[in-house]
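Sequence in, structure out.
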Amino acid sequence: MPTDLTIHQYNPQPGLGRHLVLDPRSLAYRRPYDGQPLRATAWEPRIPVLDQRNLLAQGIRTAQAYGLDADVDALASCTGNAATALLSILLTPEQAYAASLNTSDAADAEHFAIGLYADATTCDQWSDMTWPSQDVGSSGLGVAKALRARGLIDQYGHATTAEELCVLLQTGPALMGLPWYAAMSDPGPGGFIDADSDWTSSPLEGGHEVCITALEDVALVDGALDPARTVLRFRQSWGAAWGDQGDGRFYLSTYLQLLEQVDIIQPRLDGVTP
């Protein structure tokens, strides 16, 4: 295992299972901002909104499917869920079928996400614990490695600034790992997780992974990004009743507030057929 990793572990709980893991070798793969125009973009997942918190109601029996002693109703599988939403955008229907990702059935797609979560915990070599033996959470880096190990992507890059994040979203969706505060779980109108101006004062609940699907509004002041008015949309994995039909939004200024504990990874499929 590399000795120069940056690791920030959060207390995993059902629905929140992301850890921050940064590898300087991986972070070298960034798409720098060189002043190109930034435009509003949107990338729509081809799967229903997933729900990692109500497995039994979906008919997902983890004991039989994954060799557990008893069924569980929720998992800290947000990295697998976010990556599955992203993958449904990257793959054509034929590629998704070949990868055993059923894009028309939410329960089947959730099974795929759980399996991807298991792979991600194995790829997180900084930890000796893996799922299904233990629901330990995983990292954005781990699930990106899992996608590559399956041959579903051929590369992944990072963003470490607001401008770099917006550049990535010009070409596709991205995974975002972030610390999750209690106020974010009860979003405002439109699914804004930062609608409460005092959200940073609410308790830290854990670490979470989401799939950023859109740069909805790009606001500029004198040609520079205005983070307070630039809006991003993400796909959540807590069912269609959460937020705006399963989606959430936040301002780019929130990303900047959380920057020290955020990681942005964009898996890409440029030349590989699954």
